[in-house]
Amino acid sequence: MIKKGVKERRTQMTDAQIFQLIGIIYIAVGIGIITSRNFYNKMTAGFLESTPAYYIGSLMAVVAGFLLVTFHNIWVMNWTVIITIIGWAALIKGIMLLTVPGFMINISRKFIDRPNTMTIWAIVAIVLGTVCCLLGFFYLNRPAI
Prior knowledge:
Strand content: under 5%
Number of domains: 1
Helix content: over 70%
């Protein structure tokens, strides 16, 4: 029951807010990879060498994917399906990091060893992040007519 004069609190993020968060993260990481390649190479290599960091990162991917899939498993023919796809990708990646770590570590090492691959993924992240930001800050946040 909501008391008169008390605003109702939202307990779930809107599609626009999810797009905003994903977009900001993807753009920042993409730009970071391009402008600070050595840092990202060192960070990735250190992450792969640190079993606890790898394990915690794997769990974080599972949790992020699980939350997105649990609260946004919506298969529709519009832009919001991107959130569902990102959620499933994160969940599957996290599960793979936990169940086949050797395979996933080998894939990650190839990213470090091939600068062009890192650049391509950075550009993909920036483009996807830009799309998410445009959807979150402008398209889905516009007032209804």
